[in-house]
Amino acid sequence: MSSTDSPVQASVPTDADVSLEPRYWVPLGVTVLGPACLLATPLWSGVRWLTLALVLFGGFLLLQARTLRLEFAAADLVVWRGATEIRRFPYESWLSWTLFWPPLPVLFYFREQRSIHFLPVLFDASVLRQQLELRLAHLAAATTP
Between 48 and 40, where is the model more confident? Predict the structure, then answer.
């Protein structure tokens, strides 16, 4: 491997497209939290419904982590489902962004001029943060938690 083939993402120019790898920790965590709630059965009789809801939601998040892909393009954040482009978010319309709970990021928030978005972190959080800081450097200082 030559020095130009380095896998280090920090050397990627801002015009190169970067696709985030899926990470399954958040969906699996939600799914495991469901059965763990059964320990509260003596305290609350509705815990079975909560368990079912958490397991189903965890399964939904697992499916989303498997099928969705985020790609940082030159001018937009692009959301893909398989080979189909779902939506583009142009960087020029972003006002702020935050990754909640830095030790174990589970929620990604960003605000555009006309809307706000909350996404579960179903992708490699370190590369997500790195790309946000690289492509939205003018916002990073104000939004880093």
Answer: 48
